[in-house]
Amino acid sequence: MSHLFSKTHLLARVAACAALSSAFVPQAANAQSLLDGYWNPLLHQDGYAYAGGPDQNDFAGMPITPAALTVAQTWDPGQATLPMLQCIPFAATYGPRALTIMRAWESRDPYTNQQTMIETWMAFSAQHRRIYMTPQPQPPAWAPHTWQGFSTGKWVGNVLWVHTDKLKHYSTRAGQPFSDQATTDERWFRYDDLLVNVMMISDPQYLSRPWIYSKLYYRVPNGTMEPYPCGANEQIDRPKGQIPMHLPGHVVIDGPVRNGIPLESARGGERTMYPEYQDYMKTLPQNPTLKQVTDAEMKAVAEAARQ
Predict the structure, then answer these.
(1) What is the architecture, at CATH level 2, of domain 37-61+78-220?
(2) Which of 75, 128, 205, 216 could make a disulfide contact with 42, Cβ separation 3.0–4.6 Å?
(3) Quick check: 174 and 55 in contact, CB under 8 A?
(4) Nearest-CA neighbor of 216 among 193, 200, 194?
(5) Which pLDDT does position 50 carry in this prediction?
(6) Comparing C-alpha atoms, which of 280, 297, 275, 277 is closest to residue 288?
(7) CA-CA distance, 294 to 253, in Å (whole number)?
(8) Above 80 in pLDDT, residue 257?
(9) What is the band of 17 on the pLDDT scale with cuts at 50, 70, 90?
(10) d(CA 130, CA 90)
């Protein structure tokens, strides 16, 4: 009897210890640290859109609205040289596509070990983003919008879901505008040392449906990040008060012509997102030659100078 009692008592103690130890092991959704560390962007995906930037007025594959196209066609790449715009960070809609190393880290409640926040810092333009992993009060409608917006996240299995709103924007490097109603929904997932970010941008004013793109990163085990001091200065000699821009109706088409993209396709729109649109492109008229475009531009400049 004493032997049976001892065995039963021992099993009970083992079960109690197992239950106690499990209390200190975070649940799967709270144990995620997939983003921690330094990450370098991989540039093979849509590579032409990075570095020097995409060609002006090439919106093929983007579900932009006619209003967005009108705004985008007034944009000039020279705007990036204006002192007032040189040091602003990229918005969260564009930052993950930037050519820059990213650092990510998490914060946890010291008592419950629950993950409370994930933060990212991108070297270029010092983009600091906070993703709240615990319930937060939604900012009021009058709260100021910021470049990184208000982000909340949750784990669904091993995938991090992030929703961001309260964003303010400066046009992307091709001039694509976003309104203050734009929101993003992201999915972050990892395969060993490869990190994938899939972003879906919604904007009731400038997009007819969500615009989806993805970006890949590779983990850097011993990564470092330098500070990003930014001092605005005059980079181009121009008359005081002059702002680089194009008047509505003046469309720069050099880029699409140079790359053989039909001018109708370069205007973008929801239709251009789908694979079957490639068949339709074959029916479009041939573009003018680059020489014809250049001659027309020079003629227009000469006529404007005479006025």
Answers:
(1) Beta Barrel (2.40)
(2) 216
(3) yes
(4) 194
(5) 63
(6) 297
(7) 10
(8) yes
(9) very low
(10) 15
